C-alpha cells in the first residue's frame, strides 16, 4: 500500500517506522518542516508542509495529530483527496466526526503509549479498526493484521470506553510513578529502589484481578499510617500529592470495607 | 540461624518460604491455628497460638503482623524473650516503637508487594535493615544479604519516605488498574486488552523519568476529551471514578503547563 501520514509526532513516527517495513510511505506532512523532514528521511518519504502538496496517488491517509485538530485537518484534506481512504488514530474521537466531512473515513487506533525514546512491540499492541464503508473496513483490517496479532473491529463507543480505561491504566498510573519520584527525590532517596515494586504491581495486574491484588494501608484500613503519611505530605507542603493521597485512600477504603 | 515468625499472613508466608532455604524456622505464631499450621507445615516449623509457647532458643523473632498490632505484640513477647533480637517488617513503623519496649530491637523491611498467588523474586527485592545495637545491625545485614543482592542500612525516616512513595507507586497504581477494569467491565470490554499498555507504562518508568513519559489528554491539555470522559463517568453514575478522574487530570495539567 501507498500510505500518507499527517503529523510527525510520537504516534505518526512509530506508525511510519513499522509501516515502511511492508508498505511505501509516500509523504509525511507537518507544519514544522524540520519535524517532517526528520521523519521523512527515516522512512524514505517526501516531507511536505502544505496540504495542497498532497499526492493523490495514495491508498491511505493516516491523520495522527492532536484530537482537537482532527476535524479541521480532515476538512482541509478532503478537497485535495476527495476519493481516498482517510483514517484517524484517536481513542476518543467518533468516526462520525470524519464521516461528516469525508465519504471514505475510518479509524486505526493503537492501544499503547508511545514515546520517542522507546521502541514499540507492534505485534502485541491491540489495534482497533472502524470504517464507514465495508470494503474500507476489510482493507484496514488487512493492514492492521500485517502489523499486529491482535486486531479488533470496534465501534466508536467501545473505543471510547477503552480509551477512558487507558487513561486510568496508563496516564494515571504513570502519574502515580511521577508522584512517587517526587516523594523520594525530596529526601535524596533513589527512585530506582522502587523499580521491582512497580514492575511486580504491573505484572500482577496481568495475571490476577487488580481488586484482589490491592495492598497497602488504605486497603487494610490502617488510619494511623494514613494519618502519618498525610502529615508527611502536609509538612513538606505538597498540596497536590496530599489531596490525591486523601481521595485515593478514601476510595480504596470504601471499595474494600 | 534459628528464626521465629510472628504472623502467618502474606509477608510472613513469603519470608518463611525463602528463609527456610538457608535457615531453620523454629516456630510460627498465629492466633488462627489453621493459618499457623498451614504455614508451619510448609517450612517444617512448630505452629503455636499462644505467645507463652515461644521457644527461647531462637536467634531472631520476626514480627510480620499489621502495623497497628506491632506495639502490643512486642510488649507481650519481651517478657518471654527478653534477650532475643526482635524485628518488625513495616515500612512506616519507627524503630523507636520497638526500642521503647525491648532492648534488642530491629527492622527488616522488604520493599515489595506480596500476594499469596505469586512467588517473590527475593534476590531483586530491596531490603532495608535497622537495629538499636551495632552487632544486631551486622547480623541483620548478613541475613538480608543471604536473601537479596540489594540490602541497605536505612534510618526509620528514610524508610518512611520509601513507604510513602511505595503507596503511590504500588497501591495507587494498582487502584488505577482496578478502576480501569471497572470501566471496561461495565461495557463488557475485555480487560486483557489493556495488558500491553499496563506493562509498557511500568517498563517505561524504570528506564526514563516518569514525568517525561507522561501521555494522555490531561498532559496535552485537551479539554474536549477531558470533558467527554468526565461526562461518560457522570452518565454511568461512577462518582468515585469521576472525582479521581477530575483531581488527577487537574494535577497532571498543572504539572505540565
Automatic annotation (TrEMBL), chains A, B:
The keyword Oxidoreductase appears for this protein: yes
Superkingdom of source: Bacteria
Entry keyword set: Oxidoreductase
Oxidoreductase as UniProt keyword: yes
Coiled coil: none
GO molecular function: oxidoreductase activity
Residues in Pyrroline-5-carboxylate reductase catalytic N-terminal domain copies: 2-89
Protein name in the entry: DUF2520 domain-containing protein
